[in-house]
Amino acid sequence: MIGGQVEMSGYQPSALSEEERRAGRILLCCARALSDVEFEYEEDAAARGTQVATYEARVERLERLAHDVMLVALRLPEGRRIDFEAGQYLNVVLEDGARRSYSFTTPSASTDLVELHVRLMPGGRFTTRVFESMKVGDPLTFEGPVGSFVLHEPSDKPLIFVAGATGFAPVKSLLEQAFRMGIERPLHLYWGVRRRRDLYLTELPQQWAREHPNFHFVPVLSEPAPEDEWTGRMGLVHEAILTDFPDLSGFSVYACGSVRMVEAARPAFVAQGLHEDACFSDAFIPAGGTTTP
Is 159-291 assigned to CATH 3.40.50.2000? Predict the structure, then answer.
């Protein structure tokens, strides 16, 4: 940043060190201008230290998971594979060069098949296409992998995963990786949505709970309707965690959802004992399709 003042919150220290911040670097994905601001843009800063390549794929499967969530499966050409870590994401490249970011939904892999959870956004260029006109066989360009929202193992701490809406996608990836690694410490998933219909693939965490005694699933609805007949937890998802865990000092937390959710959750968790270095977050701005570092 060359001039002006910004306020930043909701990001993890690994994304921007204090030294980088003192040097004037900022994260535009979670910065709020307090004055007129002048800055220089560093292209592909989020991809520092990673190998980002461009891939041409074709849509292999479209499956409606919820009223506003579509599973989009992309197949790479024969002989082409992508290597990614659980929790990372890719950028779909639109015809004019604009990017839309979506998380990998499966454990770490070297694969020719990628599955994404795409949520319909009112007026969204790419999401409207997915729901209204995309067909099996359509070509799609993407680049990746990108991101550092990955499991930080080995560790001796119980893990709490908090997902907001389609933040379930990368959390699903991380949890399935944890199961693959044989982690036997307690694993807690808190998934917050507005209404019952916004939950999707709920049979999956229920299956995890049956298969893994150390896994616990808590769905939380913020605005249940009478027809939902909801008797479970209600309110903000991070507040449910604060209620259940008065002392978070011995835990690690992985949080993925909107910037607003992450900005609210992170300081609240820290105030309740969570160590700054044990809080890993990935926030997104659906309207712009941008994922935070």
Answer: no
Give CA torsion, residues 8, 290, 253, 235, to 10 deg. Answer: 90
Cβ-Cβ contacts under 8 Å for 76 (sequence gap 6 or more): 55, 56, 57, 82, 112, 113, 114
- Pick from 238, 240, 244, 179: which is nearest to 205 by CA? 179
Under the banding of pLDDT at 50, 70 and 90, the label for residue 289 is very low
**pLDDT tens digits for 69-109?**
999 999 999 999 999 999 999 999 999 999 999 999 999 99
Place of tokens 């939902």: 228
Whether the pTM exceeds 0.90: the reply is no
Contact indicator for 106, 269 with CB cutoff of 8 Å: no
User: 97 — alpha (psi -120 to 50), left (phi > 0) or beta?
Assistant: left
Extract the tokens encoding 61. 């499967």
Q: Where are the domains of the chain?
A: 6-42, 53-146, 159-291
Q: List beta partners, residue 136.
A: none
In terms of DSSP bridges, do strands 159-164 and 139-146 run parallel, antiparallel, or are they unpaired?
unpaired
- The hierarchical CATH code for the domain 53-146 is 2.40.30.10
User: Given pLDDT bands bounded at 50, 70 and 90, which one contains residue 5?
Assistant: confident
DSSP single-letter state for residue 76 = P
